[in-house]
């Protein structure tokens, strides 16, 4: 009897095992394949100014705060567990986690080593290192809201200790500001204010971010960096949330041509790809690719800027004529085809203080008669006598097609011939800093969703100011953006930003807003991902199903 009962139980168990084996738990793949599109200019958080570098830093280094993936891009804790502000709004105090490790990874042995815990002293060191003029950070102006940061960064003061960042104890750090700024927790998320380890920086100098040298504290560590070719990151087992990180390796390629990267996607070599402009119609019509296509808003603006000190675009009427002569809607409909929105201001929808959806904003829109009249007033009626002028952009098939369209618009509507030139991304960024052309292309994506990060930090004389904009109008613009940053009344801030956008994009036409971005990409159906509107993507929460 016992033997028969045991046999029955064994048969039942066997049947359960068979059923279970037929219905396995979801299997996940371990690798993600991603195209960076270019050689990253840097992995050093203090030196990063571009979206490629920021994306990579997001995998390697944690900030005090971060943003969630909602459409509101809310500030959420990362290293910080909580924060508070003093009654006068000037001092922000951040309490920190006590389980974040600096980790060294050796690519040769494939071994990870815990070095030491991340402390408030690393936050102080990282923020002050960015501000220190010896670091030569092009993004240090983001931290000018911090007390004495501007004075030190510009050389007015040499006292690094006077900068308003102080480790109160090992896990508490204070930031003291020049003026109240309710958006400061967002600035605390930025790579320029992230903790970095002084040991490898002091040991290796500029080479501290190379494989085998770098210490990191994020979900991934750097395994390989073959410059101009590929990069590999591997999961950090000592990351505080490592148990929930399913992608164990990220394989980055650096393919500049969108068409080549898209072919790699179709061939199964990439898991995500941007859609080339010339393939948009085919992708939309394809029964498979159309289901993998995503078109969604992004907090980014595509624009052309002027070197306002260079002839002939030192003349505001020339700049205005060039802006009025572009049919942005035709560009979107016939070239881009990805639901982009023609732009008449710098900041897009989703940014506090933006005027993109304000019908009362007198932005520049397509008007050939006005464009011709302005060019004639500048002394170039029907384009006669217009000097050699260059439009430069970073190497990209998409940028090339956009530039060719706009070049054609200027020829058709104004009778002028603008030369086109392009450079590889890293070289291009250096050119914009050292010897900018008359007209150049850039995009701006939100570091945090507030106009302070847009009009003030990008175009004021205390910000990046790539257009080299100076004079009374530039001073008035800066006064507006500074007043808006300091104002506590949200409605007052909006009014000030309205006037600032008008000075920037209309009255002085320092830039030509062209369109507000959308995400136009395809994702493999086995990829489960989030969409990060602000900062780099969070690969550590993505999943790749076995395929």
Task: Explain what you see.
- By secondary structure, this protein is of the alpha+beta class.
- It folds into 2 domains: 37-219, Dipeptide-binding Protein, domain 1 (Alpha-Beta Complex), CATH 3.90.76; 295-519, Dipeptide-binding Protein, domain 3, CATH 3.10.105.10.
- It contains 17 helices and 22 strands.
- The strands form 6 sheets. Strands 14, 15, 16, 17, 18, 19 and 20 form a 7-stranded mixed beta sheet that branches. The protein has a 4-stranded mixed beta sheet with strand order 1-13-12-11, with no helix packed on it.
- Helix 10 (316-324) packs antiparallel against helix 12 and helix 16 packs antiparallel against helix 17 (490-507).
- The radius of gyration is 26 Å and the shape is globular.
Helix count, DSSP H or I runs of 4 or more residues: 17
Helix % is 25-40%
Q: Which shape, going by the Cα principal axes?
A: globular
The low-confidence parts are: 1-23
Question: Beta-sheet strand percentage?
Answer: 15-25%
Average the pLDDT over all residues and give the rounded result. Answer: 95
Could you name the CATH class of the largest domain?
Answer: Alpha Beta
Nutshell version of this structure?
With 547 residues, the chain is an alpha+beta fold. Helices cover 31% and strands 22% of the residues.
Q: What features would you highlight for this structure?
A:
single chain; about 550 residues; 2 domains; seven-stranded mixed beta sheet; four-stranded mixed beta sheet; 17 helices; 22 strands
Topology:
Blueprint: H1 2-22, E1 31-35, H2 51-60, E2 65-67, E3 75-77, E4 80-85, E5 91-96, E6 101-106, E7 111-117, H3 120-131, H4 149-153, E8 165-169, E9 172-176, H5 184-187, H6 198-204, E10 215-216, E11 220-226, E12 230-235, E13 249-253, H7 258-266, E14 272-274, H8 280-285, H9 289-292, E15 293-306, H10 316-324, H11 328-336, E16 341-342, H12 368-377, E17 390-394, H13 397-414, E18 419-423, H14 425-434, E19 439-445, H15 455-459, H16 472-486, H17 490-507, E20 511-523, E21 527-528, E22 543-544
């Amino acid at each position: 009897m016992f033997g028969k009962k045991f046999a029955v139980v064994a048969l039942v168990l066997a049947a359960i095992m068979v059923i279970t084996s037929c219905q396995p738990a979801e299997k996940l793949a371990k690798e993600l394949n991603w195209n960076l599109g270019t050689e990253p200019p840097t992995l050093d958080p203090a030196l990063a100014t571009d979206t490629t570098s920021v994306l990579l830093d997001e995998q390697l280094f944690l900030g005090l705060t971060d943003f969630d993936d909602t459409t509101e891009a809310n500030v959420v804790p990362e290293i910080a567990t909580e924060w508070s502000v003093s009654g006068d709004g000037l001092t922000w105090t951040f309490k920190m986690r006590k389980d974040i490790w600096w980790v060294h990874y050796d690519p040769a042995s494939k071994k990870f080593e815990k070095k030491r815990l991340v402390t408030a002293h690393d936050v102080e060191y990282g923020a002050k290192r960015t501000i220190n003029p010896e670091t030569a950070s092009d993004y240090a102006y983001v931290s000018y809201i911090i007390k004495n940061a501007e004075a030190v960064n510009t050389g007015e003061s040499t006292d690094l200790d006077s900068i308003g960042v102080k480790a109160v104890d090992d896990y508490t750090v204070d930031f003291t500001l020049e003026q109240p700024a309710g958006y400061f927790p967002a600035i605390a998320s930025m790579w320029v204010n992230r903790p970095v380890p002084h040991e490898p920086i002091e040991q290796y100098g500029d080479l501290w971010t190379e494989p085998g040298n770098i210490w990191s504290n994020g979900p991934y560590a750097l395994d390989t960096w073959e410059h101009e070719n590929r990069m590999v990151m591997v999961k950090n087992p000592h990351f505080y949330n490592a148990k929930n990180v399913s992608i164990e390796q990220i394989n980055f390629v650096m393919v500049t041509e969108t068409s080549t990267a898209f072919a790699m996607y179709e061939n199964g070599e990439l898991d995500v790809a941007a859609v080339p402009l010339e393939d948009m119609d085919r992708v939309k019509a394809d029964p498979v690719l159309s289901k993998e296509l995503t078109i969604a808003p992004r907090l980014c603006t595509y624009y052309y800027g002027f070197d306002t000190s260079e002839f002939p675009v030192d003349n505001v009427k020339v700049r205005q004529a060039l802006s009025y002569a572009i049919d942005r809607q035709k560009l979107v409909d016939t070239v881009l085809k990805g639901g982009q929105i023609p732009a008449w201001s710098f900041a897009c929808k989703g940014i506090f203080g933006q005027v993109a959806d304000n019908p009362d904003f007198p932005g520049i829109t397509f008007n050939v008669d006005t464009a011709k009249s302005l060019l004639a007033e500048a002394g170039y009626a029907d384009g006669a006598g217009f000097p050699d002028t260059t439009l430069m952009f970073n190497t990209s098939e998409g940028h090339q097609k956009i530039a060719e369209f706009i070049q054609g618009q200027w020829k058709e509507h104004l009778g002028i011939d603008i030369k086109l030139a392009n450079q590889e991304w890293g070289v291009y960024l250096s050119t914009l800093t050292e010897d900018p052309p008359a007209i150049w292309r850039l995009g701006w994506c939100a570091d945090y969703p507030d106009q302070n990060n847009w009009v003030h930090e990008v175009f004021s004389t205390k910000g990046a100011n790539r257009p080299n904009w100076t004079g009374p109008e530039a001073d008035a613009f800066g006064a507006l953006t500074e007043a808006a940053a300091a104002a506590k009344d949200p409605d007052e801030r909006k009014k000030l930003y309205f006037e600032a956008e008008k000075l920037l994009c209309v009255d002085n036409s320092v830039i030509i807003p062209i369109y507000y971005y959308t995400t136009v990409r395809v994702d493999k159906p086995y990829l489960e991902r989030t969409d990060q509107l602000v900062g780099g993507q969070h690969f550590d929460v993505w999943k790749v199903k076995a395929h």
